[in-house]
Amino acid sequence: MASSLFLYFFLGFLVLAGEVIALSSRNESDHMVMDKEELLGVFEVFDALLDDPIWAQLHPQPCTDTPWPGIQCEIAFDENKDNPPVFHVTKIHIGPDIVNPPCKSSAYLSNSLQKLPYLKVLSIFNCFLNSPAILSPTLFDSLSSLEHLSLGSNPSLSGDIPSSLGQITSLRVLSLSQNNLLGNIPNEISGLVNLEQLDLSYNNLSGEIPKRIDGLKSLTILDLSFNNLEGQVPHSLGQLQLLQKIDLGSNNIVGRIPPELGKLKRLVLLDLSHNFMNGPIPETFSGLQQLQYLIADHNPINSGIPLFVGSLKRLTSMSLAGCGLRGTIPNSLSSLKNLTALSLDNNTLIGTIPSSLGFLPNLDQVNVSNNKLSGELLLPEEFIIRLGKRLDVRGNIGLCTSNGTYSKKKISLYLKTPVCSGKIDNDGPEENPDESKGMEPSRFHGNISSNAVPPCLDHQKLLVLCIFVLSFWLFFL
Q: Can you tell me the distance from the alpha carbon of 173 to that of 120, in angstroms, rounded to the nearest whole number?
């Protein structure tokens, strides 16, 4: 009996304790507030961006009672336990995935961002489309907690990249792609020791790549493509051992391809296309065993295709079009079992196209047009048919096909290559080239009967006949 009373008492105590804890939690939540200055900063930032004049009235407590999908907050506890916990805005996101309200046509970045010192993520896409918006040099001075900054696809966003960004050592992602930013890449950016991704592509940046870029020890992705960058690729780039992607395409970069890039053992993509970089492709690149994409189109490399390319077993796409390549296509390419695309067009390559390319199981696009390749094309027929127009061999004057080699009619027309000399198409018998040497066309056509008169007589019989006719003529005279 006593044990039963004790059990009931204990269960009642647990229920009462749970209610007390829940009530305490509710009271604590009710007292959670935002700092007034920080809340004002949120209102001012969104008033500068969104086409909704009553946004602040609709969301007076954006962290609690009236949330908005583009804002995230975190709870912070004061060291003084007597003070209630407070909410801080840690993320602001505006993009096409949040359609209402849209950005106003006169949107701009308010300096009130500096009132949000706890902000960790700021991402704004497709917002500055019409009226000019300037990236202020002091805009990010107070954002010491920022980890992710993405301002992308804003064609009216201009100005220089603020050098003060180099002081935000917590920054892990800096993406300023597809804007209209000007000026140089600030040297101070090399102080971002925790930066993992740097994307400044599709802007109007000029000057050189900072030589102190090796300070970005945590960098895995570097994309500076589609700018007006000049100078040479700094050799110090080879010190960034965590790099997996380098895209420097479509700039005005000159000089030799640094052999130090061959030290980047984790590199998956290397794009140097549409620059003015000289060859040869360094032998050190044989160490890039993780490389999947090697793209260097339209650079004056002016050398041969290195044999070591065949050892890059993970390579899926190689594009060296318009590079002044000379020499032959190496048979070592047949070792690239993962290769899906090969572009070697608009070079001065000679020799034949290795038939072994046609046995690569994943190869789905080949362009070797406009070279000086020659000889008979001996790629497997099923490979030719499978690729269709994705196989381009045009513009090689010495290259030919033999229709007799393939079951498909007129394969030479299919590939737009001439029929090999001494070969005729499948509509007639193939001529033996050894028997045809020195032969002239016959003057007789059709069948010749067995009793036909021979075309000529023996010389002695002809002489006797002439004497007989002459004697017969004189006798009657």
A: 11
User: Mind listing the pLDDT tens digit for each residue in 150-189?
Assistant: 999 999 999 999 999 999 999 999 999 999 999 999 999 9
Omega of the bond prior to 96 within 30 degrees of 0, cis? no
Please give the full DSSP string across 320-351, using - where no structure is assigned.
-TTS--EEE--GGGGG-TT--EEE--SSEEES
Which tens digit of pLDDT belongs to each residue from 198-218? 999 999 999 999 999 999 999
Q: By the 8 A CB rule, do 288 and 310 touch?
A: no
CA 201 to chain centre: 12
Angle at 430 between CA 426 and CA 431, to 5 degrees: 150
What is the edge-to-edge ordering of all strands in the sheet holding 133-134?
133-134, 157-160, 180-182
- Summarize the confidence of residues 383-396 as an average pLDDT: 93
Burial of 273 (0-12, 13-18, 19+ CB in 10 A): buried
Convert the pLDDT of each residue in 68-117 to its tens digit.
Answer: 999 999 998 877 666 788 999 999 999 999 888 999 999 999 999 999 99
